[in-house]
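Subject: sequence -> structure tokens, single chain

Hey, anyone have a minute? Need the predicted structure for the following. Not urgent.
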Amino acid sequence: MRRFDAIILDCDGVLVDSEPIAFDLLADDLARHGLVLTHDRLEHDFLGGTMYDVFARARTQGATLPDGWVADFYERLYARLAEGTPLVPGVAGVLDALDAAGIPYAVGSNGSDRKMQVTLGQHPDILARLHGRLFSGQTLGTPKPAPDLYLHAAAALDTAPGRCAVIEDSPTGCRAARAAGMACFGFSASGDGARLAAVGATVFHRMADLPALLGL
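Reply:
Had a minute. Here:
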């Protein structure tokens, strides 16, 4: 019996290396509105959330963000991402291994549908493999850390939650996986991954190592 019957992947930081681009833009933006934060602090406070979360939390920390900031930031972010968003190294090999094993997979992201089209659309082969299996917590109205997004993806894959594994890079996403009753593998490309391990994820540091962890 194989270890898992379906795999659900986060998008930003797992499939596409979009987070450095987003955090660069966010750091500049918050600084212009009176809140200067290091990249480490930005990741600690905001990784895995939505821009609506960022807006609310940054305001409580003293940022003078205008009411229309979220929509404006998204437009500028989409434009920046469209200039070039690389895949996370090794992720194509992970999908190859899943395809070879006949294991279905889907994406569950707190990013918007439009954002996934902007980033994954730059990689047509990857996007084609995910046709009909891209799910946004914003579209569903239940972003992580609520489990609903991952439960929705599992249902779309016709797989019981306990037979699914989630691939995540944020504590927020790992908590969603745990709440959904799914195993979680936490990808930490840099650092020791302690924050992911603390919320129950099995930490790994290279995508090339993931197929073996999944029993492929």
